[in-house]
Amino acid sequence: MIERATGWTHPWSEFELEPDDGSVPFVSVPPAPLDPAALRGMFAQHPTGIAAICAEAEGSPHGMVATSFSVGASFDPPLVLFSAHAGSRTWPRLAAARRLGVSVLAETNAAAVRRLASRRGDRFEGVGITRSRDGAVFVAGARLWLECRLVSQQPLGDHTLVVLEVLGASSLEDAVPLVYHDGQVVIAGSQ
Questions:
Q1: Within this chain, do residues 57 and 87 fall inside the same structural domain, yes or no?
Q2: Which of 129, 134, 149, 186 has the most CB atoms less than 10 A away?
């Protein structure tokens, strides 16, 4: 029996005995952990891009980091999505903004990730930013900028699934992407 607590150690599936009839073998997949920290650790094994979701709200820039950001939810219209923690104090401010800036972060932004994800102080201290006329805020040096509007938000478990429509875009193709993998910020292609 697999332990379903904090000590969950990412067990690998075990194949059952090969069937005598030559068909595809069955596999026994261990149960997913119930402990949120262990589950986060398991999900962190899947590399994802890191995006800063930012906007001007109440006269100053606000932002958050999303490692759940996904492009291509739809191509017509162009839609992207991410999830925000249900307890986030930043997301409600961003959700009320007219436009949101999504900056898919690059190698040059590696030092800024912790600052942008911080829950204390000025998240933008020492981070170069720019704004669109409609209030989207972008991080300088990012690989991709998307100016978006909120389409929908749906509570799901302890998060809110957010869908954004892409209204404007700019790409810096030669910028090396940052990736979130195994709980760390990694420069894509390096290990």
A1: yes
A2: 129
